[in-house]
Amino acid sequence: MPQATPGEPFELFALYYARHSGRSAADNVIGGDLHDAGSDLAYFVWVAKRSDRVFVIDTGFASGEANRRGRDLLRRPVEGLALLGVDPAKVEDVILTHLHYDHAGTLDDFAGARFHVQDAEAAYATGRCMCHDFLKVPFHVEDIVAFVRHLYAGRVCFHDGAVEVVPGLSLHKVGGHTAGLQAVRVWTKRGWVVVASDVAHLYLNLHRKLPFPAVYNVAELLEGYRTVTALADSPDHVVPGHDPLVMALYPAPSPDLEGIAVRLDVAPRPFPRA
User: How many domains does the structure of the chain reveal?
Assistant: First the structure.
């Protein structure tokens, strides 16, 4: 847990760039009631920025993977970043929560960035686990090749466990969904917010403790729900990685960004409880 004074709070945004419709409950949970309605998936990248630093969290995918996997690409992630006033050519730090296709594509769009990743994730994505089709499916080999090229160019920053990157922003290895999945804890004007990424795809996964079916280690994933909740100031300070409700619960930064981006550094609307 970071001990330094957090200092200036970050502005924190979720940028909605793609979606996947027509999913059933069985597509989204292990062990749930299959009579429950399924949820679409929303695809996000996130931005934490303040006067001295900008961090992009994940890089999404582009049209090639959208077409190959049947996803609806709304905009290339860098196009959305530009709408938030973030020039990808000037971004110095990109946090990769993990290396799945929807979180670590388009790396070449960030020509000057260093990429922050957990040791365990790089080993997982390039090691013996990729001999198993079930574990390999969410990765795209060309994304991994691009990652390795950036590594050899000296642009990857490795971490092993929890680390405070700067006061007010820390990374926390959780695992579960992948071997080296990391969540991002961010100091904002409403307190500590945790970008959970795929620790919890949906609020349903987190609130009902039901794991998403794409998983490497179920026990680690279940423990991850406890971890991200403990890191945040409240359960309402945990932001899941793929829930369309995020766009409904949080306000847009401006009227022209309605349906494109929301602010996570302000309190959400009341959550619809069953």
Answer: 1
